[in-house]
């Protein structure tokens, strides 16, 4: 890219959950690296914690009411909060001489986008799921362009030019030194004082920051049965406050096991494994594609508009992942699937090759390149 990013001043609205925050933070970091200036607009219950994570980026907090369906009795209070957020965003955009606004989804983006519209600033949107969310569908009326992380399943509901561009992944994931499975396992052994083996098939299990009950209960029991037939090892992230319970279920197992509540070493876990068992949030699916790993995906059943199923379908559509329904993720149904894959290394490798084909690279740079071209 030969464009002058030093003149670029973008406000990125990424309040709400990590699925909105981390992609926005990735774009902000990349713009700062290219010599421009990014301002993150944060709001919601996680804003204080997110502000600490984004300490290397200019962050502005926007006070908003809790983003849930307002009680009719509280509608005035809710509207007053939105108007306050709008005024706060408008002031920030003016004072910082912002020349474009990028919204990363969620209704937390409403005040900044409306403020940008009033100030006649170019508006851009990114959605981290295959099913573009309600907020972005509405805001697309005002946008110059919307990008999505995966092929859009509701493309006909978007009211501006749009394109599947991929997910802006964290530099902690994308900028790491690539290593072999053996090298990654050796690093895990050093970091966590464990005894994983470099020549065993490795299963990586995680269910998000809060863990997944179906993973922490059914999978350990299923793996105990498979341990009687196959040699393998397991890396399992149980989630917050679920370590002790999950650890008890793994008692009396013979396979090597690294069980953690959580960890920031995902890049090592991805490179150490041969098969992933996880939820299918947008960032997770994009990271699985980036590392080219076969997966068994169990969409979170309470995700808005069942969007995790659509994300999982992005990989399953070319036979790079297997989708299991959360309700049917029972021990007797888990065992034959893992059994089949462990018994067929060639099938696992074919899934891995297919997954790698779905990866989209350098997404943050591509978004910034398009924005500067359009403004």
Global structural class:
alpha/beta
Quaternary state of this entry equals single chain
Q: Strands across the major sheet, in which order? A: 3-2-1-4-5-6-7
Largest sheet: 7 strands, parallel
* CATH topology name of the largest domain: Rossmann fold
CATH homologous superfamily title of the largest domain: Glycogen Phosphorylase B
Shape: elongated
Which strand-content bin applies to the residues? 5-15%
Low-confidence stretches are: none
CATH class of the largest domain: Alpha Beta
Q: Can you count the beta strands?
A: 13
Outline the secondary-structure elements.
Layout: E1 9-13, H1 18-33, E2 37-42, H2 47-53, E3 58-61, H3 75-95, E4 100-103, H4 110-118, E5 123-127, H5 134-139, E6 145-148, E7 162-164, H6 171-174, H7 181-192, E8 202-206, H8 213-226, E9 233-237, H9 243-249, E10 257-260, H10 266-272, E11 275-278, H11 282-291, E12 295-297, H12 307-316, E13 321-323, H13 331-343, H14 345-357, H15 363-374
Parallel strand pairs: 1-2, 1-4, 2-3, 4-5, 5-6, 6-7, 8-9, 8-11, 9-10, 11-12, 12-13
Helix pairs in contact: 1-15, 3-4, 7-10, 8-13
